[in-house]
Design a protein that fits this description.
By secondary structure, the protein is an alpha/beta fold. The chain has 2 domains: 161 residues, Rossmann fold, CATH 3.40.50.720; 94 residues, N-(1-d-carboxylethyl)-l-norvaline Dehydrogenase, domain 2, CATH 1.10.1040.10. 50% of the residues lie in helices and 15% in strands. An 8-stranded mixed sheet has the order 3-2-1-4-5-6-7-8, with helices on both faces. Helix 7 crosses helix 8 and helix 9 packs antiparallel against helix 10. The structure holds NADP nicotinamide-adenine-dinucleotide phosphate. The site of NADP nicotinamide-adenine-dinucleotide phosphate has 21 residues, from helix 1 and helix 4.
């Protein structure tokens, strides 16, 4: 059986770039690397990576070029001076950014004659190359298909989202938003129970299972949203709002920050004002779909 060992270049050897390059290297791909601070390549070079002397040399070395630097401005700063050297190459940008930045970068790479995939890494560097790592890609399907076996080395949770280059960054920010919301809600709870001398570890024993239960609600909630069926199944938004008032009151009277509780209450208040007091929680999506003034 022939095994594809496409030569790969990795530009950017921060914490993440080093994990990406190391994974390709250990899988037997000829790997060329470049980093602004060359010393960060030392360990990879010791493992067999080839250190390019310039970004141009690095890009020219492989048909598949991965870029992972701090932000899109750095990507453009690095690549724009290269001109049409990207032609006939596939650029995979795993730098975090916005959908607008991804679409603009795609236009620029396409003008240079190159092919572009935008990617988002939903994992930390130690998870790269494992079953846990989720990496999301968007751009031309044929380009993704051609390099999927190589890209899949970075994480078993590799997924193609669609031709619109903005999709991976859009999912990235949306998923990180969900992550921060869960973490901040947990911290809010820790602050509240902490006023009664309960420590975070004790609270986590209850919060963890609850978060798991809420996760299990998502498929049904998503179906209700997609069908715009807001018939209450268990508790109405009016009932939730009553409990949110308790959360705001406890936070204010116990002297912990009430900003997040007030935000939750404000969204539910708006839903009720829109006539959704008796609707299912799914109806709150209407409040998220439009901008509105939120009192904190
Ligand atoms: P990092 O350790 O801070 O590394 C940043 C990299 O960008 C370094 O290689 C740095 O070069 C390079 N760089 C920055 N500005 C540059 C410029 N103007 N020209 C050339 N190179 C430049 O960050 P990281 O953790 O590797 O993250 C890289 C990207 O992956 C970010 O977009 C991040 O959001 C994303 N990401 C990271 C994680 C994570 O857990 N670390 C998870 C998901 C996504 P020098 O070494 O010369 O400074």
């Amino acid at each position: 059986m022939s095994i594809d060992k496409t030569p790969v270049t990795v530009v950017g050897l921060g914490l993440m770039g080093r994990a990406l390059a190391g994974t390709f290297l250990r899988a037997g791909h000829p790997t060329t690397v470049w980093n602004r601070t060359a010393a960060r390549a030392d360990e990879l070079v010791a493992e067999g990576a080839r250190l390019a002397g310039s970004p141009a040399e690095a890009v020219a070395a492989s048909p598949l070029v991965i870029v992972c630097v701090s932000d899109y401005a750095a990507v453009r700063e690095l690549l724009e001076p290269l001109g049409d050297i990207l032609g006939a190459r596939v650029l995979v940008n795993l730098t975090s950014g916005t959908s607008e930045g991804a679409r603009q970068t795609a236009e620029w790479v396409t003008r240079q004659g190159g092919s572009y995939l935008d990617g988002a890494i939903m994992a930390v560097p130690p998870a790269i190359g494992t079953a846990e790592a989720v990496l999301l890609y968007s751009g031309p399907r044929a380009t993704f298909d051609r390099h999927e076996p190589t890209l899949r080395l970075l994480g078993a949770g590799t997924a193609y989202l669609g031709a619109d280059h903005g999709l991976s960054s859009l999912h990235d920010v949306a998923l990180l938003g969900a992550m921060w919301s869960v973490l901040n809600s947990f911290l809010q709870g820790v602050a509240l129970v902490g006023t009664a001398g309960v420590d975070a570890t004790a609270f986590a024993a209850f919060a963890g299972p609850l978060i798991g239960t809420v996760r299990d609600w998502l498929p049904d909630l998503a179906q209700q949203i997609d069908k715009r069926d807001y018939t209450a199944r268990d508790a109405t938004i009016g009932t939730h709002l009553g409990a949110m008032e308790h959360l705001v009151h406890e936070s204010e009277s116990l002297g912990v920050d009430a900003g997040l509780p007030r935000l939750l209450r404000a969204m539910a208040d708006r839903a009720v004002a829109d006539g959704h007091a008796d609707s299912d929680y799914a109806a709150l999506i209407e409040q998220f779909r439009r901008p509105g003034r939120v009192d904190r």
